[in-house]
Amino acid sequence: MSITSPLGHPQAQPQPQPQQLTPVSDPVLEIKNLSVDYGYDGDPVHVLRQVSLTLGRGEVLGLAGESGCGKSTLAYAATRLLPPPGLITGGEVLFTDRDGRQTDILRLNDAQLRASRWQDLAIVFQGAMNSLNPVFRIGRQIADGIRAHRPEVSQKEALERSAELLELVGISPDRLRSYPHQLSGGMRQRVMIAMALALDPQVLIMDEPTTALDVVMQRQIVEQIADLRERLGFSVIFITHDVSLLIEIADRIAIMYAGEIVEDAAALDVYQRPRHPYSSALLHSFPPLRGPRRELTGIPGSPPDLSKLGGGCPFRDRCAFAFDACSKVNPELVHPNVVGDDPRRSVACLRHDPAAVRAVGEEPLPVPPELSLR
Amino acid sequence: MRFFLRRFMFYVITFWAAVTINFIIPRLLPGDPVSALIAKNQGRISPDATEALRALFGLDENVSIWQQYLDYWNLILHGELGISFTYFPTPVTEVIQQALPWTIGLVGIATIISFTIGTLIGTGIGWRRGTWADSLLPISTFFSSVPYFWLALIAISLFSVTLGWFPASGSYDRSLVPTWSWEFIGSVIYYGFLPAMTIVISSIAGWILGMRNMMVTVSSEDYVTVAQAKGLSERAVMFGYAARNAVLPQVSSFALSLGFIVGGTLVMEIVFSYQGIGYFLFTAVAAKDYPLMQGIFLVITLAVLFANIVADFVYGVLDPRTRQEG
Prior knowledge:
heterodimer, A: seven-stranded mixed β-sheet, about 25% helix, globular, disordered N terminus, B: mainly alpha
C-alpha cells in the first residue's frame, strides 16, 4: 500500500531549525507561491496571495476555511480553469509523474494542458446538479473524456469502461443510458466521481463534493472516496468548509484564511493541537462528535474585505491573541514555536515567529497555552 | 407514445379553433362581398345572379349560420376553399397552389440561410467574447432595426437601378417557360437573389444576438467547465457542450419563424412584386376577395401549426428533459 499516513511517522526525528520546513516526501503536486487576482483594471483584488501547498503521493489533503477565503479559487487556478476575471499572477504548480518527470501546469501550452487534464489530474466540482450536460446520456459523457485522451479506444470499449466505473461507485451499469435528470443528486455526484476516475488520474481535486447533499449521502460519498483511494492509490485534495468532515477523511489539513494558508499539519494535530488562533477558533465552532464536551465559542466578526487588506495579519481584528506587531507584519508559514511538534507542520502566526516580530522592532509575546496544547 | 398522442390532440383542438375563427371573422366584417363583386363588374353580372352567387360562395341567406358552418367544414375537409372573386372563376386552392411554392422557396431558403449563418456567427462571438467579432453585433442590429421596406427599396435602387446587377421585380425571366430546366432554375435564383439577400440581412441580427446571449449563459455552466477539465478539444467543448445546449431556444424560434414564412413576407413580396402568397393576400384584401383571404389565412394558420408540431418534435429529440416518458 502506497499510502503513508503522516501520523504513522516516528516522532524521533531531529528537531529542525524553526524557519526551515521539512518538505513532504514524494510529492505529486506542489503549488508554489500561487497568486490570483480578480479584475483586470488598475485595482484588482488579490484573492490568493503566495499560496504554497504540497500534496504527497497517496495522501488526502484537506483544505478548509470560511466561504470566500479562496479555497475554490485555488482549485480552479491550479488546474487553469479559472473563469474571467480571475487571473493567475504568479507561482508554479508542479506535477510529478509516476516516473518522476516534473511539469509546471501553469507553463504548459494549450495542447499539452488538454492532454494533461483528466489524465494526470481530475476534478470533481461543487455543483453535482449542474456538472453533467443535461442533453447527453451519462455513458456518453464518461466515454468522451476517455476517447479524448485515448483516440485508439473504440466507443464500445469506452462505454464498457464507463460501465466498470459506474460499478466502482456503486451504480448499476444499466444507468449508462440514463440522462442526468433521471438521477438523484447523490447518484449524479457518484457519476462525477466515476467520471473523474476514468483515466486513473494521480491527483483528484474535490471541490466541496458533498455540499449539496444530505448528511447520510455525504457520509456515503466520503466513505466511498476513502475506499476508492485505498484501492486505486490516487491523491486527493479535498476542499470543504466542514472541518469535522475533514478530520475523518484527511491525512493532512491546510487551513485557509483570506487567501492565505495559515496552518498546515496532520489532521489529528489540527484537531487536537491547533497552533493558529483561527484554526483553534474554527474547531470551537462545532461540537466534537467524540471525547469530552467543549465550549462552543464561534469566531467574532466576519472575514475581511480582500480588497481592503493593508499590511499585517488579516486575522488580527478577530483574534484573541493579537498584539502590536500583528498590524505591522503579515506572518509567514513557520514551524510552530512549540517544543515536540511534528517537524512537518507549519503555522502563520506571529506568536510562533519571534524573529519576525523582532524584525519590526516589537517585543515578541509567548505562545498562549491555548495554542500550545500537547 | 402517449406524449405524441397528447400533442396530437392538442393540435386537433387548435386546428378546430383556428378554422372556426377563420369562418366567423369574415362574416363579422362590414360590407357584402356579393354586392361588392357585382359593383366591381359594373353591370356585366346581372343582379338576378345575386342569389346564385350567394349560394356559390356559401352565403345563402336561407341557410342557417350553423348549416353554413357545417358546409364550410365539409368543403375544407374535401380540400375546397371556394372560388376567388378576383380571379373568377379560378378556385382559391389553385391560386394558393400557384403562389405557395414561390414564397416557401424564396423565404424558406432565405430563413434557413439566415438561421444557419446567424447561429454560427453567434456561437463564435459568444464563445470568444471581447474580440473584434463583437463589432458585428451593432452592425447587424442596425440592419434589422431599419424598416424592411426601406432596406429593400435601397437595395433595389442600388443594385438594380444604379448598378443594374439584379432585376428589380418579378420572380423569373418572363420569356422563359416554367420547366425544370437549368436555364429556368438559374433565372429563378437570379431573380430571387436580391429579395433573399434583404431578408437575410434584416433577420440575421436576431439569430446572432439570440445565439450569442445563450452561448454566454451556457459557457458559464458547470458542465462546460467539466468538459474543459476533461481535456476535450476546444471544438468538442464549444460545439458539443456549449453550442449544443445554447441552440435549443434557437430551434424553437426557428420553427416558429418557419410558420411565419408563409404569412410574414407581405412587404417583401409587394416591394419586389414577387408572386408569392403575401402578394396575393395583399390583392385579395384590396379587392375584398373574401374566399381568397379566408383561404390564405387558413394556409397561414396551418403553416404555423405545422411549424409548431415540427418544433415540438425536434425539441423532444434535442432535449431529453422535455420528453415525458411513462
